[in-house]
Amino acid sequence: MHFSSKDISPATAYKLLTSTVLPRPIAFVTSISKEGQLNAAPFSFFNAMGSQPPVIVLGFEPNADGSQKDTPINILETKEFVVNLVNEELSVQMNMCAASLAAEVDELKHADIETVPSLSVTPPRILASPVSMECKLLNNMPLEGGGQIIVGEVLHFHVRDDVVTGLEPLRIDISSLAPISRLNGPLYGRITDQFTIKRPK
Ligand SMILES: Cc1cc2nc3c(=O)[nH]c(=O)nc-3n(C[C@H](O)[C@H](O)[C@H](O)COP(=O)(O)O)c2cc1C
Predict the structure, then answer these.
(1) What is the pLDDT of residue 71?
(2) What is residue 196's predicted lDDT score, i.e. its pLDDT?
(3) Is the pTM of this model over 0.90?
(4) Residues with CB under 6 A from ligand 1
(5) What range defines the domain where residue 167 resides?
(6) Helix (H, G, I), strand (E, B), or coil: what is residue 132?
(7) Cα of 165 to ligand 1 centre, how many Å?
(8) CATH code at position 92
(9) Within a domain: 71
């Protein structure tokens, strides 16, 4: 079946993307408004995009009423945020933070999430997250329909000690990291079903 983007609704385009570009990693983003209000929310239009400097990208849809979500507003205003990766233990609290809450609600308090101060940015990182990345805004691209693409440079990586199984060369135990991924709708994936392919020389 063929779908031309010029003939389909934004809702169908969203469905096509979110039901086929799978699995998507989840960035649980902590940010602070310019008035100092703490915010946390999950985003699966997310990935790593480059390593020199280390760069990640986030995609934000507008709210149903066309307004911007609190996270992109905060990032564009303060130029700082933290991407916290999500494992199964964090998943219920992560999902609580996806509720449409008023900007003045502290989602971290709402979901009973403990944070620790960051080294270089004002938003704190999430203690229970296996990996947190302190980021500064590198670039942004507003989309015609009200969405926003944000590119962040990672200033610091915080990785839970047991996940790092070697230094020089760095070794990460992905089974301990155990990130979950977003599938479509309420479906999530684990990384427990793996197979190997050796890269040709
Ligand atoms: C797993 C998951 C992934 C999500 N991914 C996105 C996303 O990539 N982009 C987006 O705009 N909203 C996404 N959402 C919805 C936001 O988390 C939700 O709109 C949230 O209330 C935004 O909060 P904020 O206004 O505090 O930024 C996702 C929700 C969940 C549960």
Answers:
(1) 97
(2) 97
(3) yes
(4) 26, 39, 41-45, 59-61, 69-71, 95, 98, 100, 182
(5) 10-189
(6) strand
(7) 32
(8) 2.30.110.10
(9) yes
